[in-house]
Amino acid sequence: MDIKRSEDGTLHFKLGPIERIALIASFALLTFLIGYVFHSFDSRLEAQDKTMQTVVTAQAVTNAQLQTLSQQLSDIPGLTRQMAEMKVQTDRNTQDIHELQSVRHLK
Fold first, then answer.
1. Longest dimension (CA), the chain
2. Residue 104 needs a FRET pair 20 to 30 A away by CA distance; which of 16, 21, 41, 87 works?
3. Which of 21, 23, 3, 5 minimizes the C-alpha distance to 13?
4. How large a percentage of the chain has pLDDT more than 90?
């Protein structure tokens, strides 16, 4: 590399053939490394995006199952009331049967 001062006071430098090759190789290596880092970062973002989509899908399924369970659980008080009514009706029917049997025995 030669540095020369021109007549107007500015500095000019010239690179030799080996220095030019070294400079071009350095720029090529820097470009390759930047591209590699970008590609690596991009592929990690894509993998993270796929994982997030899987999580979102699983979360939607879980939410749907929770809604179904909530609906089923909200019916429990009604079912308890229906069971109590059926027990009362069964007891009444049993009493009616006993009364009918006792009336038959009296005849």
1. 145
2. 87
3. 3
4. 66
